[in-house]
Write a structure and sequence with these properties.
Blueprint: H1 7-10, H2 12-43, H3 48-60, H4 64-72, H5 79-97, H6 105-110, H7 112-125, E1 130-138, H8 141-154, E2 158-163, H9 170-184, E3 188-194, H10 199-203, H11 206-213, E4 216-220, E5 240-244, E6 248-252, E7 273-274, E8 277-281, H12 284-299, H13 308-311, E9 321-328, H14 336-347, E10 351-355, E11 359-360, H15 363-374, E12 378-384, H16 390-397, H17 400-405, E13 409-413, E14 417-418, E15 422-425, E16 429-433, E17 437-438, H18 439-443, E18 447-453, H19 455-470, E19 472-475, H20 477-481, H21 485-495
Parallel strand pairs: 2-3, 3-4, 7-14, 10-12, 11-17, 12-13
Antiparallel strand pairs: 1-8, 1-9, 2-5, 5-6, 6-8, 9-18, 10-15, 13-19, 15-16, 16-18
Length: 501
């Protein structure tokens, strides 16, 4: 029996006409979606460059731009999650603030430069600076993990850990062993690892082993494409926090892994992380505890912690350092770190030194850097020579010409992938934490940064920058002016995506 001939052979004109009608209908639907999304973007309260970036992407890249925005364009965590996080953060902060200002009255009157920064940060976060801390700057991954293991082995009441990346290295496994030992002797242990940054570890054997030992393990901000609790899959918890017994805490740039960078996108000699972390002993640990508990109670089914007052009891003073914990995230504190950094750059009088792996500043940060240099402040920016993200590296280079023209000194670090996020102003104020100098850290991710109003510690941070400078080469303006038009085109094109990076 003969098969009927296809329609496109019998009447090709009619067949093409039908497909043309379908194509026009799809095109109209796609343009309607574009217009509705652009209206939505314009109505959103977000930085102008980010809105412009999304409009350009949706307008110039059909279908892909719509798909990209559907999964990464919205910042919301879901209204119930946001309300719960804000409620917990407010209640926790009130408990943490109790007695925090004791003995600080004279300091507020005598430290004018630090006072401006402290008042801005406290207004943004409702968290005051806290005196009475002992600080240690740790710039070695193995040293940090060794100190963590020793502190966990001495824990008596609880260990709370939150990390963006929890790795599968042997040394990180020893930390897990220490947690299992602590849980075995009755210490309450909680581990939160970001669902995306730690996805390999979360799928491995360690979470089950820790749960079997009595450790509570939770994936932070889980992603489910079919039942999305998140409206944006790249919105991550980028914090690196450990709190032990409420009086010892860690905060900085190092994830729970060793130095090795597992990527082939950079030469072998750059494939290890270089980080900086602050170990705190004293009352400031309570504020980091508050940040952890807000994240934990928002992301888990645990309605409350029975003895939460014991977790938030302000630790006894143990030193002289004044520390200001500044958390930020896509809730009511979204711009806390951003505004604190702008203020810190604005109060500088002699010197600014900054280190960051990802440098994609918005207009306000860039203007503050340029303004400081133009008014005579010596500004030094240290960035890695090689980066694991080529687009981000290109977007960073697009800013070099204007910064060099203003007198900013830029150095490329040669020793590895410089991952530390730190700054020091006038040898008296220091900033160290998890936030990069990019719009993702400032506006999208959950981050945590420490402001330290303590000259001896600030000097140690400055010495660390000097160490990085000894391992770096300077980018000179004459050298930069010789770049080809193709190189400038590449970098300037990447900068167009800066609001979305």
């Amino acid at each position: 029996m003969l098969q009927p001939m296809p329609a496109w052979i019998i009447d090709p004109v009619a067949w093409l006409r039908g497909w043309n009608a379908l194509g026009v209908a799809l095109l109209l639907i796609e343009w309607l979606i574009r217009v509705l999304l652009i209206v939505r973007i314009v109505r959103r309260r977000c930085p102008g460059p980010e809105s412009l970036g999304w409009i350009v992407l949706i307008g110039l890249v059909p279908f892909f731009g719509l798909f990209f925005y559907a999964f990464m364009g919205e910042r919301q965590l879901g209204m119930r999650r946001v309300r719960r996080h804000e409620q917990i953060a407010r209640s926790v902060d009130k408990a943490a603030v109790a007695n925090a200002l004791a003995g600080m009255q004279d300091w507020w009157q005598t430290h004018g430069q630090a006072q401006q920064l402290a008042r801005a940060a406290q207004t943004l976060t409702d968290i005051p600076p806290v005196a009475g801390n002992t600080l240690e700057l740790i710039d070695s991954a193995s040293d940090l993990l060794d100190r963590l293991i020793a502190d966990i082995d001495r824990a008596e009441h609880h260990v709370n850990m939150l990390y963006y990346i929890w790795g599968n290295s042997a040394h990180a496994g020893v930390v897990c062993d220490a947690l299992a030992r602590a849980a075995g002797r009755g210490v309450a242990c909680r581990v939160m690892a970001d669902a995306v940054g730690s996805r390999v570890w979360l799928k491995g054997p360690w979470p089950a082993r820790l749960r079997a030992a009595g450790v509570h393990v939770q994936a932070g901000l889980p992603v489910n494409l079919f039942r999305r609790r998140l409206h944006r899959i790249d919105l991550r918890n980028h914090r690196k926090i450990t709190v032990i017994d409420g009086h010892i805490a860690y905060c900085g740039s190092q994830n729970l892994t060793d130095e090795r960078v597992r990527t082939r996108r950079i030469p072998p000699r750059y494939r290890f992380w270089i980080d900086a972390t602050c170990r705190i002993q004293g009352p400031a640990a309570t504020a980091l505890q508050a940040a952890f508990l807000a994240d934990w109670l928002t992301s888990t089914d645990e309605a409350s912690i029975p003895d939460i007052k014991q977790y938030l009891a302000v630790a006894k003073p143990s030193g002289d350092s004044i520390v200001h914990v500044v958390p930020s995230g896509p809730t009511s504190r979204v711009d806390a770190i951003h505004q604190s950094l702008v203020t810190m750059l604005s109060v500088a009088q002699r010197e600014i030194m900054m280190t960051t792996p990802y440098f994609v500043p918005d207009a306000a940060i860039k203007a503050a850097i340029v303004s400081a240099s133009l008014r005579g402040v010596q500004v030094t920016l240290i960035l890695p020579e090689q980066l694991d993200n080529a687009i981000v590296a290109a977007a960073a280079r697009a800013h070099y010409a204007e910064l060099l023209e203003a007198g900013v000194r830029i150095f490329h670090h040669q020793g590895g992938l410089l991952h530390a996020k730190a700054a020091v102003v006038d040898g008296e104020l220091a900033m160290i934490g998890s936030a990069n100098l990019d719009m993702r850290s400032f506006w999208i991710n959950f981050e945590c940064t420490l402001l330290v109003y303590d000259a001896p510690f600030a000097q140690r941070v400055r010495d660390l920058h000097k160490k990085y400078l000894g391992e770096s080469t300077e980018v000179s303006k004459p050298q930069w002016d010789k770049r080809t038009w193709a190189q400038n085109l590449r970098d300037n094109s990447a900068q167009l995506l800066a609001p979305l990076l």
